[in-house]
Amino acid sequence: MTHTLPEAAVLRPAGDLVELTRALVDVASESGSEAALADAVEGALRAAPHLTVERIGHSVVARTSLGRAERVVLAGHLDTVPACDNLPSRLVDDRVYGLGACDMKGGVAVALQTAMTVTAPTRDVTYVFYECEEADAARNGLGIIAAARPELLAGDLAILLEPSGGLVEGGCQGFLTADVTVRGRRAHTARAWQGVNAAHRAAEVLRRLDEHGVREVVVDGLVYREGLNAVAVRSGVASNVVPDTCVVTVNLRFAPSCSPQEAEARVRALFPEHEVDVTEVVAGALPGLGRPAAASLLARLGTEPRAKLGWTDVARFAAAGVPALNFGPGDPSLAHTPDEYVPVAELHAVRAALTDWLTG
Amino acid sequence: MTHTLPEAAVLRPAGDLVELTRALVDVASESGSEAALADAVEGALRAAPHLTVERIGHSVVARTSLGRAERVVLAGHLDTVPACDNLPSRLVDDRVYGLGACDMKGGVAVALQTAMTVTAPTRDVTYVFYECEEADAARNGLGIIAAARPELLAGDLAILLEPSGGLVEGGCQGFLTADVTVRGRRAHTARAWQGVNAAHRAAEVLRRLDEHGVREVVVDGLVYREGLNAVAVRSGVASNVVPDTCVVTVNLRFAPSCSPQEAEARVRALFPEHEVDVTEVVAGALPGLGRPAAASLLARLGTEPRAKLGWTDVARFAAAGVPALNFGPGDPSLAHTPDEYVPVAELHAVRAALTDWLTG
């Protein structure tokens, strides 16, 4: 099958969903370079009379205003990680391959097509296509909108179309990163007994981390799996010197029922004899599956939700008081891999489920 | 007390030993910049009719040729580590302070004065003043002489005037450096159970190193203290990734009765399940205190020898079949410190002991 890059980035969002996904992949949009894709998406949305469109940076927000009792937000990021010899898109074995196909232009295609074709949804809908999700948090388009125009993100439920294998993944876990500094005393290795080897002392820190293992926590019926890992170890002065410090960087993934304060206390309690410097801590998001909007989606899908273990932008909605879940096409474990793809069947399934829910 | 830097580097080696030490300190000679000091030393030695002098790079060798039954080698390096705001020399409380005072211009002063004043020693003597001991091994002047003119280093005993607190330190320990690589399997920390944390596995490596502790080994009546230490630990991919490797760099100090091959086998046997990459292994030097020349020196001194725990250039002599020991003024633990000094009393004591031994 032949396929050429579009001469101009003009999308046909009401047309074939696979072609739309491929067109979105073929407009390169690494973080910081989303202008062309944002232009194309904005251009398509402005052609729809049932939508009110706003542009904020290289993010685009489109809304219906039908006066429905509920409002839901469908959101997806426009950017990708850097290319890895995986452009242009390819269609092989009913899978769309190419940079961002899985994370998350497949989801963007579904949301864009839904925006264009579901002209009279039974719930008002806010569509958010945003920039810089794969870059540092300060540039995240969703964060920028939340700060500048929080009313645009308001709703009874937010659905992030990040890849979730076509299943509903509720909430997300929080994470904490901290440096645990083990102290010793320097000495020449020829007279090591005059010092205290900090790297040797770190053995006990690593042992406790290993002992932590996986802890299952159930929230709203979903099973989260907390983990605590050393993600870096740094020690060393010179090859003939007993090192006087060893820094173990630890990463805790904690269930959304645990607050950042509790997470920090847990890590500190594990290493009472060492310095613990928390460098980053981010709350998770409660699944909120009991909310009416979420319950109706789950009922419509007829599948069991599962817990989201990684951190996603659903936490940004949760922090704003909007329950949020992940529901999108593509296997999340393929994200950021050179061979990422999205199955055509999942594109159609998610598209159909959302249309069904928004029109039923 | 006032003291000025010499206008030209002219030494008065037969004069006051403290002034000679200070003059040697005041001719800066960081590794690679020994030319001026080597010129001064060579000039002084060439003025002595009882000595045959040769210059090799910035090293100087001077020999008596009296047809004695024994030949001993007195050796010292001319270079220092980089200056640390510790020039010019100062004489305070009967200590000579300044860059290299302890390591080892005090020893060089003793050897140089002995060379000039002991004109008819009872043993033939080879004096070696050499460059680049504090730099990388390939530039070491003693190594260069050993390769180019090995006959110049021949003798029944070599005495290295490295600081040893005025005591005889026999032999030296060998050392081995190796990287122990612990393997795991990468995974996202949100799904850590899909991976194997290499840093966690390294806890057991560090525990075994700590368990090794200090092991005493007696050779020729001297007590060596072997030690095995982690000197560096490196692990880490990203703050959300379970690391798949953790490299622990270990340093073994081993008694001179242990061969490099045995040392390597010991480290490998300790970590049979991990990759062990030996990056450097250097043999120690047996004390050889039973040799007649060494025995007579010890008898003359009337002090007990002790084991040399660090590695020194005595090992270069040992490798050439010449028993060697360390005997020089200054506290070895002050070497390379900004406040290094050599006690005047030790300068005189070592000088007197050597003169006594070479003339008695």
TrEMBL record, chains A, B:
Q: What GO biological process, any one, is recorded here?
A: L-arginine biosynthetic process
For this protein, the Enzyme Commission number is: 3.5.1.18
**MF-aspect GO terms:** acetylornithine deacetylase activity; metal ion binding; succinyl-diaminopimelate desuccinylase activity
Which SUPFAM superfamilies does the UniProt record give?
Answer: Bacterial exopeptidase dimerisation domain, Zn-dependent exopeptidases
Gene3D superfamilies, per this entry?
A: 3.30.70.360, Zn peptidases
Identify the domain of life: Bacteria
Quote the InterPro entries the UniProt record gives. Bact_exopeptidase_dim_dom, Peptidase_M20, Peptidase_M20_dimer, Peptidase_M20A, Succinyl-DAP_deSuclase_DapE
Keyword check for Hydrolase? yes
Pfam families linked: M20_dimer, Peptidase_M20
Task: Please provide the record's keywords in A-Z order.
Answer: Hydrolase, Metal-binding
Does the keyword Cytoplasm belong to this entry?
A: no
Question: Ranges for the Peptidase M20 dimerisation domain?
Answer: 173-276
User: Which NCBIfam families would you find in this protein's record?
Assistant: dapE-gram_pos
Name assigned to this protein:
Succinyl-diaminopimelate desuccinylase
Could you tell me which species this protein originates from? Answer: Streptomyces xanthii
Organism lineage reads as: Bacteria, Bacillati, Actinomycetota, Actinomycetes, Kitasatosporales
